[in-house]
Amino acid sequence: xxxxxxxxxxxxxxxxxxxxxxxxxxxxxxxxxxxxxxxxxxxxxxxxxxxxxxxxxxxxxxxxxxxxxxxxxxxxxxxxxxxxxxxxxxxxxxxxxxxxxxxxxxxxxxxxxxxxxxxxxxxxxxxxxxxxxxxxxxxxxxxxxxxxxxxxxxxxxxxxxxxxxxxxxxxxxxxxxxxxxxxxxxxxxxxxxxxxxxxxxxxxxxxxxxxxxxxxxxxxxxxxxxxxxxxxxxxxxxxxxxxxxxxxxxxxxxxxxxxxxxxxxxxxxxxxxxxxxxxxxxxxxxxxxx
Amino acid sequence: xxxxxxxxxxxxxxxxxxxxxxxxxxxxxxxxxxxxxxxxxxxxxxxxxxxxxxxxxxxxxxxxxxxxxxxxxxxxxxxxxxxxxxxxxxxxxxxxxxxxxxxxxxxxxxxxxxxxxxxxxxxxxxxxxxxxxxxxxxxxxxxxxxxxxxxxxxxxxxxxxxxxxxxxxxxxxxxxxxxxxxxxxxxxxxxxxxxxxxxxxxxxxxxxxxxxxxxxxxxxxxxxxxxxxxxxxxxxxxxxxxxxxxxxxxxxxxxxxxxxxxxxxxxxxxxxxxxxxxxxxxxxxxxxxxxxxxxxxxxxxxxxxxxxxxxxxxxxxxxxxxxxxxxxxxxxxxxxxxxxxxxxxxxxxxxxxxxxxxxxxxxxxxxxxxxxxxxxxxxxxxxxxxxxxxxx
Lengths: 290, 392
What we know:
The structure holds two protein chains of two kinds. In chain A, 72% of the residues lie in helices and 3% in strands. Chain A has helices at residues 2-29, 36-52, 57-83, 88-110, 138-160, 162-172, 174-179, 184-210, 214-218, 221-230, 236-255, 266-278, and strands spanning 127-131, 134-137. Chain A is mostly helical. By secondary structure, chain B is α/β, with parallel strands linked by helices. Chain B has two domains: 40-153 and 287-342, Response regulator (Rossmann fold, 3-Layer(aba) Sandwich); 155-279 and 370-381, 3-Layer(aba) Sandwich (Rossmann fold), CATH 3.40.50. In chain B, helix 3 (90-104) packs parallel to helix 4 (117-128) and helix 5 packs parallel to helix 6 (186-200). Chain B: InterPro entries: Leu-bd (IPR028081), Peripla_BP_I (IPR028082).
């Protein structure tokens, strides 16, 4: 049982990273981006296709990240220009449409589960230490560290820097921000580009653990959204905790034969209960602040 | 009022005319498969677009039929394949069945390869008293229907062969199973395990039939703790082997199902890890194996992709032609169904046991599997030949 918990925790860092990308996008540009993982997977597959063709891993990584950044930038620009005045639901619906399109194109370009699976470079596969039967690799340490850096770094940036202040203003009151002289479209597009690049890095980091084909990577958005829900789409440290919780629950449910058959459902049930618990004192129609 | 009076009879006459025309067309096409002249119409339902894509299957069946036709056909009659794409869509699969069986009047279905055909059309095949010989049987209904007999062992007989290989050929005492179960196939998996238990008197050391997507580490740790020497596995290849390597499971034999037998998957197995795949036909990657030479030559001549599925297509077409050649008298749906229900088994070099249709209520004639191992990013055929459970 303890071994399973540790095994689960070791995957928590990856889940947390995915969730953080969703929360980050929501806090900075106020969009629930369903196409996030698919856009990241585009970059990841660009990279792995280039390394398969013999390109050195560093330029390939740069180009892969650039592809995701550019795609994300285009998506952001479209949302800002054509859907800027629409509400969050419409923007989310646009990203769902983009998700479907990116998945279809990705499947065409990179192949299906059995024919298009690729081996991703796993530079952090070496063992660091062993707890019980579980070997903990550098990848676990790196994902956790990366998740902590994002959580702390973004909080500090939003609270302490001028860019952070402008970003907050932009996401909460875009109209007012523009009136006081913040160049909304340009700044928001830059944020989309940065998030695209970050997502590509995250997907590349989790790929050796969570899936080597395009459709599996694109569908990681489901896990990402579940983790983001724990943080209520706004709280970064809670999102980090949510990732670890999800990993932990998966580990435990895999070890208990009674509930094993329902392994896929359990984490989501727990998250549902958590959400209910957190919102138990909320009054009907309370406006959520970000 | 006046207008409608004029229109209504007109509409009725039109409808009647349409009905008559449709009936006439159907009768002309021989909708009961009773035609005794002209080409012998054969149908197939294939996934060409959609999630389960096998465009090479109808091409390969047609290649065999063309060969037969060039040599004079069957008693002077040509074979005509009518293949329909169902795009893995049950609704379209049903429509395909209606068109092929009822409108076109095909005498049999040969070389179907669809993930939904057997399940949605089995009842219709029974009513129409028509037989189907799928090139690739996918869902459980392909293996437990009275009118369907695929030419592949299918996931369940393959599982028995994989278990048998692990315990009897590789001599492992602790055999474990980590499987993703598709809806409706849980019973088939249990039966396959039971068959192996009865044959060998052994039990699984660990069993998990709910492996999903996500980090495989918890499953690998469970396998490690159970002391598994062989692990049977059927889900995603990449993450499983990457994490098994991290967890130091280099001394475990991982045995996967035929769905993992692709070039891409061979490259995913890290050096030092032991990965095997149980194949359904002679491994397609080696054209020198029995039966493969003719298939490979035919595929290359017609520019068709060489895959395991196209092997199934050639085999389905071959056994169909062989039975038809042995028939005397008219070739209609009725006589074809009778011939297959009464046929004697056919030895076919590409599979581990003879293929037969016969009068049974369910058919899974092909048994056994041949194994390949991942070596340097390629699948290498192992020398043992077909492993048929219970046959030393």
